[in-house]
């Protein structure tokens, strides 16, 4: 689901059409513009009252630097990463740390938003080796969850 591309007013109705077509859950594109997200989810919540239950998941990218964020931004179609977030990454003493903080702020808001069942945390690592990327991504997701105050299970996977 792409709530950040025009036509904005039609995006909530598109989400409901997906539910009517059988979707049990909807995952949004990466959320960079919280004000637009708030408008989108408020309208989805208004429309969902007459629909069968479904889960809405918000996508959150974990950006490690302004340079990588700009590369990602160049590849996005229909929306962009706001300059305010790019500036935060650029001006940070530790851009990776700031990227974690931005993601944790978004995660905190989404976990407190009515109608949002969860989030898809997507770290951008730039690693070529899949195993190294998986380990790094797991560590980044754990750190974002910790900063957002969400319990993190430790230990081996069952």
Structural description of this entry:
- α4 packs across α5 (95-111).
- The longest helix is centred in the C-terminal third of the chain and has 18 residues, at 130-147.
- β1 (25-30), α2 and β2 (55-62) form a beta-alpha-beta unit.
- The relative contact order is 0.15.
- The protein has 158 residues and is α/β, with parallel strands linked by helices.
- The chain has helices at residues 11-20, 34-48, 66-75, 83-91, 95-111, 130-147, and strands spanning 25-30, 55-62, 118-123.
- The chain has one domain (8-144): Alpha-Beta Barrel (TIM Barrel).
- The protein has a three-stranded parallel sheet with strand order 1-2-3.
- It is globular, with a radius of gyration of 16 Å.
Features:
3 strands; TIM Barrel; 6 helices; alpha/beta
Mean pLDDT: 89
Tell me the number of helical segments per DSSP (H or I, 4 or more residues long): 6
Number of domains: 1
CATH topology-level fold name: TIM Barrel
Shape: globular
Task: Flag low-confidence runs.
Answer: none
* Cross-sheet strand order for the largest sheet: 1-2-3
Distance between the termini: 31 Å
Structural class computed from helices and strand pairing: alpha/beta
- Helical content, roughly? 40-55%
Radius of gyration: 16 Å
Main sheet: strands, sense, barrel? 3 strands, parallel
Number of E-type strands: 3
What is the strand content? 5-15%
């Amino acid at each position: 689901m792409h709530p950040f591309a025009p036509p904005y007013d039609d995006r909530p109705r598109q989400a409901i059409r997906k539910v009517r077509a059988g979707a049990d859950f909807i995952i949004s594109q990466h959320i960079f513009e919280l004000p637009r997200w708030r408008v989108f989810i408020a309208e989805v919540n208004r429309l969902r009252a007459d629909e069968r239950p479904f889960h809405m998941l918000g996508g959150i990218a974990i950006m490690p630097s302004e340079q990588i964020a700009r590369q990602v931004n160049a590849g996005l179609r229909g929306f962009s990463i706001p300059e305010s977030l790019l500036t935060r990454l650029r001006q940070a003493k530790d851009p990776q740390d700031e990227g974690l903080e931005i993601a944790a702020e978004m995660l905190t808001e989404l976990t407190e938003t009515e109608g949002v069942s969860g989030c898809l945390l997507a770290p951008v690592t730039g690693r070529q080796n899949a195993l190294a990327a998986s380990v790094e991504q797991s560590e980044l997701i754990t750190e974002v969850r910790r900063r957002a105050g969400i319990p993190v299970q430790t230990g081996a996977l069952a």
